[in-house]
Amino acid sequence: MLxxxxxxxxxxxxxxxxxxxDDGNVYWCRPRRRAVFPLDTYRASRVVRRLVRDNVFDxxxxxxxxxxxxxxxxxxxxxxxxxxxxxxxxxYLELHSLGLAHSVECYADGELAGGLYGIAxxxxxFGESMFFxxxxxxxxxxxxLVRQLKLQRFDLLDAQIMNxxxxxxxxxxIDHEEYMRQLAMALEKKISFL
Length: 194
Description:
CATH class: Alpha Beta
Subcellular location: Cytoplasm
InterPro entries: Acyl_CoA_acyltransferase, Leu/Phe-tRNA_Trfase, Leu/Phe-tRNA_Trfase_C
Distance between the termini: 30 Å
Low-confidence stretches: none
CATH superfamily: Leucyl/phenylalanyl-tRNA-protein transferase, C-terminal domain
Number of domains: 1
Strand order of the largest sheet: 4-5-6-7-8-3-9
Mean pLDDT: 95
Protein name: Leucyl/phenylalanyl-tRNA--protein transferase
Strand content: 25-35%
Keywords: Acyltransferase, Cytoplasm, Transferase
Number of strands: 9
GO biological process, one term: protein catabolic process
């Protein structure tokens, strides 16, 4: 059974949980190559900069973590399953109640349009998932996350496994040894997400 203590210990050692929709089990993943976002070189796309400048979305932090994780746990378009199991949702809700898991949300006309969630430990933020209901809402939420991490002087934004969307946003892959070096340095920091 997945629990908060084991999840936190796993993150400290470079692992993260992933549910298998086929057998319902949760497995620990530690990829040889890790997707991370270099915070010092991140630059939002022109579209995202325009949306932020024009205040198209109302950006909030931790306003409705439960709704964000519920949307993230839904299967994506053209997919019938998700890696975010009920067991994972329950643990992250508990992590949120402990002040360790956070969400960044975009609202349009008072409705949740997109967002993301993850865990903050020391100077590391472990991005878990994002979703959108309106075009570019998750990208604007991501931009807000990066701005918050820079403001608080975080060192590491872990995106776990590379995919085309993360690459488009600016993620790069590093090998496991380099990831563990960056993680150790980030975990030494005593800072808060908010």
